[in-house]
Amino acid sequence: MAVHVTTELDGLQPILAMLNGLGQPRRLAQGLANIGGLIENQTKDRITEGGPSPDGEAWAAWSETYAATRKKGQTLLVATGAYRDSYAWDLNGDALRVGSNMVQAAILNFGGTDDMAPGPAAIPARQHLGLSDANVVEIEDAMSDWIEGLTA
Questions:
Q1: Origin, by domain of life (predicted)?
Q2: C or N terminus of the chain, fewer CB within 10 Å?
């Protein structure tokens, strides 16, 4: 079973237009790979830091019961680091994907309800996928520098 969530990255349209303007599919692939690496790292940083979501919303704290089971040094989504480290980017043609292959990824990002199987699965959303305004600026700056280097 696979779950896919697609987001149009409207904030990156100027950069994507510049990449397409290079007129070389290989250069487009290199640029998208660079963007994929940046988004992967931004997502992992957000998980490590315990939020906030890309829109700036703070993540909900653990419940008291769950917090009592956690060890020192663990953060909201990092117990061992395996979940965070499962995030990777993939490029297929001009389709860039960043995500996790772990089954819990969707519920950890979007949250769950009491009536969800195998239940109860009521946990708050802790959105970590997506781009903040600062993430978009970081990508724009990095890609502008990269494109400038190609044309220099």
A1: Bacteria
A2: N
Is residue 4 scored above 70 in pLDDT?
no
- From the CB of residue 31, how many other CB atoms can be counted at a distance below 10 Å? 23
- CA distances to 42, 76, 109 from 35, in Å: 10, 26, 21
> What's the pTM value of the predicted model, to 2 decimals?
0.85
Give the CA dihedral 105, 140, 41, 37, nearest 10 degrees: 90
